[in-house]
Write a structure and sequence with these properties.
There is one protein chain. The chain has helices at about 5-25, 35-55, 60-65, 70-85, 95-125, 130-150, 155-160, 170-190, 195-210, 215-235, 240-255, 270, 275-280, 285-300, 310-315, 325-355, 365-380, 390-414. The protein is mostly helical. It starts with a helix and ends with a helix.
Length: about 425
């Protein structure tokens, strides 16, 4: 084997390992403060970019290897972030907010840079060494072990009763990431692309997702599976026997998690307990979200064109919370109508390219990743996964993978 090819292959393996470690660490980086988690992930991403640049990439090679559309998306995101930061100079908010906003803008820009580099990496042969669902499954297994430790340790169990984990500030942070492999494994089962390890991964991830008790994550999961089923029916690839098999996996998973559903917040307790169901409609949940959305919309109307800048909601809200539990309203407050339109247009453009260039031309291997992408968007309409650094980073990984796959399909057809 040619030495240069061997060196490139070895470097790609190291990059896959490094990216896997970063995602794993990000799963547990929130601890008790999202700000610390965001800084840890930013540091890891910078290290990743430096390593990639020094070991296998030069700027010219990236520029010609990455599809021009992906370059356009990346640079538009960076430009958008800079515009959002520039709006600070026209905002009469305190100095602390300005510094926090600039720091968050730097974090977001770093996500875009990682997206740009990963577009190249996934387009290259070395990208086959990385499998996001497996990485998140291993991470989920570690989280399950940590949760079991909390479950049996009396000193940690008291905190667990209130949904407080010693390794995560909020159980929803875990649900943001567990949702992704759960969706991907389920779609692969419907496409008959499974083996024993895939079934085990689905049981572990789905079981933990159900045990965490996040209604938004479970609804987003079921919606993505339903959407995938509709697509497979359209392509005449739907098999009722595979859907029945998936339903049996659901039943088996729910049954084996029942003994651990001992807290008011976890398992199916939040769906089956009438008290929990009523609480979901009380001021502590959906009504509070509605009030947040009203306040965020009112703040958007005060500065409709370019917004207040990144991190704005936390500093201008009178209700509380880091974000308004809706990513569109979050962007409207932070980046205004101009920035939000750009962001939504780019997401729509990526969706259109995946559908028109891949899914509706028979390239169904991209379907699991696309459904995970759709599930995160659906969850983001009622939750904060587009605010927190870990799920946002993984979202960019998914986007880079899909953009690279479309690029490879276009190259094969040209």
């Amino acid at each position: 084997m040619n030495y240069s090819i061997l060196k490139l292959y070895s470097s790609n393996c190291y990059i896959s390992s490094l990216l896997s470690v970063i995602i794993c660490i990000s799963f547990f980086s929130t601890f008790y403060t999202p700000a610390l988690g965001a800084f840890i992930i930013f540091t890891l991403e910078v290290f990743f970019l430096i390593y990639v640049h020094r070991n296998i990439m030069d700027i010219n090679r990236i520029a010609f290897r990455v599809n021009s559309l992906n370059r356009y998306i990346s640079f538009t995101f960076v430009l958008l972030t800079l515009l959002g930061s520039a709006s600070l100079f026209f905002t009469s908010v305190d100095f602390e907010f300005s510094i926090s906003s600039l720091i968050r803008s730097l974090y977001i820009t770093t996500h875009f840079c990682v997206f740009y580099v990963l577009c190249f990496y996934f387009s290259d042969e070395g990208g086959v060494n990385f499998e996001l669902s497996y990485v998140l499954t291993v991470t989920t297994c570690i989280a399950v072990l940590f949760s079991l430790v909390s479950f049996v340790d009396p000193s940690l169990r008291e905190g667990l009763k209130e949904g407080q984990f010693f390794f995560s500030a909020n159980r929803r942070y875990q649900g943001y990431l567990v949702l992704i492999p759960t969706v991907m494994y389920s779609i692969r089962l419907l496409m008959k692309q499974t083996n024993v390890s895939s079934y085990l991964g689905l049981v572990v991830c789905l079981g933990y997702l159900v045990w965490l008790g996040g209604r938004g994550a479970i609804v987003a999961y079921l919606g993505s599976v339903a959407l995938a089923a509709v697509y497979l029916i359209y392509c005449n690839q739907f098999r009722a026997s595979l859907m029945l098999r998936l339903a049996l996996v659901w039943l088996f998973t729910v049954v084996i998690t029942l003994p651990l559903n001992v807290f008011k917040w976890n398992g199916l307790n939040r769906f089956l307990d009438p008290g929990q169901t009523l609480d979901a409609l009380s001021s502590s949940s959906m009504v509070a979200r509605y009030e947040l959305w009203q306040e965020a919309y009112a703040n958007f109307l005060d500065k409709p064109w370019f917004g207040y800048g990144a991190e704005a909601h936390y500093y201008i809200t009178e209700i509380g919370f880091l974000q308004p539990h809706n990513f569109i309203l979050q962007w409207l407050v932070e980046f205004g109508l101009v920035g939000t339109t750009l962001l939504l247009s780019l997401m729509a453009l990526l969706t259109w390219r995946v559908c028109s260039k891949a899914l509706f031309r028979g390239h169904r291997h991209i379907l699991p990743a696309f459904m995970a992408f759709a599930a995160l968007i659906a969850q983001g309409l009622i939750d904060g996964n587009f605010y927190h650094a870990a799920p946002l980073m993984v979202f960019f990984v998914l986007c880079a993978y899909m953009a690279a796959e479309v690029t490879k399909i276009e190259e094969q057809q040209s």
